[in-house]
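Intended use. Records like the one below are meant for learning the mapping from a protein sequence to its folded structure. Do not use them to infer anything beyond what is encoded.
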Amino acid sequence: MQSTAQISSQFIWRRLHSLMGLWLVLYLIVHLVTNSQAALWLGEDGSGFIRMVNSLESLPYLRVIEVVLIGIPLAIHMVWGVHRALTAKTNASTLRYGRNQAFTWQRITSWILLFGIIGHVVQMRFVEQPKTIEVGYKKYSMVAITMDSGLEILSKKLNFTIYNGNQPADFPVCKLKPNQVLAVADSPGTAMLLMVRDTFKSPIMIGCYTIFLLAAAFHAFNGFWTFLITWGAILSMRSQKAMIPVSVIGMGLLTFLGLAAIFGSYWMSQYG
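Structure written out for the chain above:
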């Protein structure tokens, strides 16, 4: 029999895991609303994405805010989530009820998200993150991207400059791969928009991020449904069933927002 201390510890961890999960769902909604505006067919040529990113990048102590409001909640949710994924036993193979299947997929998507989030952070925050340079009294953001026919038109609309291996002398040396150019913008939002657009030129990245997105959408709103039960908001069978369509709609909206960025920033864009 478990001791009172063990039960209390598990209770606290489960509640903390649940609260951090709700916070991350809210963050995911904001994140995908922002990213959806990178879809260049929505009518503003990405200006909504650029404005939101520029606003975020102008915040003081941004890296501290990211660690406290995103990194720590994510770490807490992931640590306990991995513990549950390793110890929980699924019964979807023997019981064909919908909630058994949902429980199984919640565990499966947790593993997809674990590796997907690590890959996403490494790629977007370290490997392809635009670099900021200061020339005189002005700051610029630059990013290496592959050349395509739509860049020339897009550069005039978004006001960035393309250098093909002939950077100005006061810019740091940037080694480019074959068919790459250096895009230099006067705002971080523009450079990040170009980074997102360049990422989704690759069918492999489209496939990986689509799987990542579907896993995140399901995990978020199936977890939200479970959160409401855990905290006593929906205890009757009737209320639980009533919330299922709401969760499905939430999954659909997140999926639409994410796919807008994945397919709309390049392949379905007038600048693709």
